[in-house]
Amino acid sequence: MKGVWQGVVSDLTDQNVLLQAGVLVMVLATAWGIQRLARGNALPQGRVWDIGRGGVKRVVFPLVSALLFFAAAPLLRPVMSVNLLALAAPIFLSLAGIRMVFYVLRHSFSNSVALSNFERGFSLLVWGVVALYIAGVLPEVIDILESTGFHIGKQSVNLWQILQGIAAVMVTVFGALWLSGV
Fold it and tell me: What CA–CA distance (Å, rounded) separates 177 from 182?
């Protein structure tokens, strides 16, 4: 399987890489402008809205950037290579996810050493998954996790299912903590 990174490296010798870089700069400038607009006082005042406004401020730029990269790629694919955009989209999407998760955690828990250590570990995990995706080996890693299974009674379980279950529980707990903080 050809990874995103191999596509970007092959594009570096193509003259269209400057067009991709130009689109990248335009997307980032647009996302920055939207972020500036979102920083206004469009939301009502109050604790609930302050928490929501703070979360929006943290994720607007990377989230809008990722969405614009995802939208631009299929539109531009017929006329040029879009490997650079395909590389930028998951990076900015993961940045938005990391920022949001830790914004919620910081409002749910006091700023402790355990939270700082968890933040480092979680960020490393997310960036590691993004790196596997960019390198093009994530599907193979998922296949290995799916093929590593065992039986609990009559039920067959694999490592990929266990990791998905842990992620679902964590998302639910973080959502509940955020709602209780609000």
Answer: 9
List, in sequence order, the alpha helices (H) in the chain: 4-11, 17-38, 47-76, 83-108, 113-135, 138-147, 159-181
N- to C-terminal Cα distance for the chain? 45
| Residue in this structure with the two tokens 């395909």, named with its chain if needed | 86
Cα separation, 49 vs 55, in Å, equals 10
Q: How many CA atoms lie within 13 A of 104 on its CB side?
A: 17
Q: Of all helices (H) and strands (E), which one includes residue 151?
A: strand 149-152
Quick count: other Cβ atoms within 10 Å of Cβ 2?
A: 9
How would you class 31 by CB atoms within 10 Å of its CB: exposed for 0-12, middle for 13-18, buried for 19 or more? buried
Q: Which helix (H) or strand (E) holds 150?
A: strand 149-152
Name residue 116's amino acid. S
pTM for the complete prediction? 0.64
pLDDT in tens, the chain (182 residues): 456 677 777 777 777 778 888 888 999 899 889 888 876 655 555 554 455 556 667 788 888 999 998 898 889 889 888 888 888 888 888 888 888 877 777 766 666 667 777 777 888 888 888 888 877 788 888 999 999 888 888 888 999 999 899 889 987 887 777 677 66
> Hey, which residues does 156 pair with through a beta bridge?
151
